[in-house]
């Protein structure tokens, strides 16, 4: 158990819909990361937050947005869903946002868009 | 980000040592070498990292070549639970952000 929790575990929805994925970091960790894992693209970094502020952006679509709240939990919002958005979404946390800190990953949310 | 090259797959027998290689010929002086692994149906898991010197922890050892253009992750006695995809990742120590850039990794199969 990494100490990072993600809800829900599974999500099935239809094209065009909007969903919210939730992540609670390990106690004391200030930085949260979101990653997407699909069969064709592998594991890809989406976005990083540090203590409530956006720190870095990766291959995140404009239809996707995220935020980190004052209690440090984070949400990833996916809208106008397409079939290609079906993937595993992982949240990770680290003590700081620095590059030598290890990241602790949650169990993931499996999103299926029908 | 500097690129890493790993074999697509490797096989080992249980209780034997496993040496997983990684080439990173374009590594810069400030790049840390990180290893993560992903067990089936789980999120990635940190294994070990280093900068210049060899490193040991309870999970594995990391041997870094003197010119830093390659490294080897060593699992001293493989168990069935070590069957996973292993990722070698370079992270620039100068940056104030810490994203991980995953490649294809090495699929490790462990035979009983």
Set down the secondary structure blueprint.
The complex is a heterodimer of chains A (114) and B (112).
Chain A: E1 5-7, E2 10-13, E3 19-24, E4 31-38, E5 42-50, E6 53-57, E7 64-68, E8 74-78, E9 87-94, E10 104-105, E11 109-113
Parallel strand pairs in A: 2-11
Antiparallel strand pairs in A: 1-3, 3-8, 4-5, 4-9, 5-6, 7-8, 9-10, 9-11
Chain B: E1 9-13, E2 18-23, E3 31-38, E4 45-50, E5 55-56, E6 61-64, E7 70-75, E8 84-92, E9 106-111
Parallel strand pairs in B: 1-9
Antiparallel strand pairs in B: 2-7, 3-4, 3-8, 5-6, 6-7, 8-9
Keywords:
heterodimer, A: 114 residues, mainly beta, seven-stranded mixed sheet, four-stranded antiparallel sheet, 11 strands, 53% strand, globular, B: 112 residues, five-stranded mixed sheet, 0% helix
Give a structural overview.
- The complex is a heterodimer of chains A (114) and B (112).
- Chain A is an all-beta fold and 114 residues long.
- Chain A is built from no helices and eleven strands.
- In chain A, strands 2, 4, 5, 6, 9, 10 and 11 form a seven-stranded mixed sheet that branches. A four-stranded antiparallel sheet of chain A has the order 1-3-8-7, with no helix packed on it.
- In chain A, strand 4 and strand 5 (42-50) form a beta hairpin.
- With 112 residues, chain B is mainly β.
- In chain B, the strands form two sheets. A five-stranded mixed sheet of chain B has the order 1-9-8-3-4, with no helix packed on it. A four-stranded antiparallel sheet of chain B has the order 2-7-6-5, with no helix packed on it.
- In chain B, a hairpin with a 5-residue loop joins strand 6 and strand 7 (70-75).
- Classes of the chains: A mainly beta (114), B mainly beta (112).
CA radius of gyration of chain B is 13 Å
Shape of chain B: globular
Beta strands of chain B, count: 9
For the largest beta-sheet of chain B, the strand count, sense and barrel status come to:
5 strands, mixed
Flag low-confidence runs of chain B. Answer: none
Q: What would you call the structural class of chain A?
A: mainly beta
Q: Return the structural class of chain B.
A: mainly beta
Show unreliable segments of chain A: none
User: What integer is the average pLDDT of chain A?
Assistant: 94
Relative helix content of chain A: under 10%
Task: List SSEs of chain A in N-to-C order.
Answer: EEEEEEEEEEE
Question: Largest beta sheet of chain B: what is the strand line-up?
Answer: 1-9-8-3-4
Q: What is the CA–CA distance across the termini of chain B? A: 38 Å
Q: What is the ordering of alpha helices and beta strands of chain B?
A: EEEEEEEEE
Helix content of chain B: under 10%
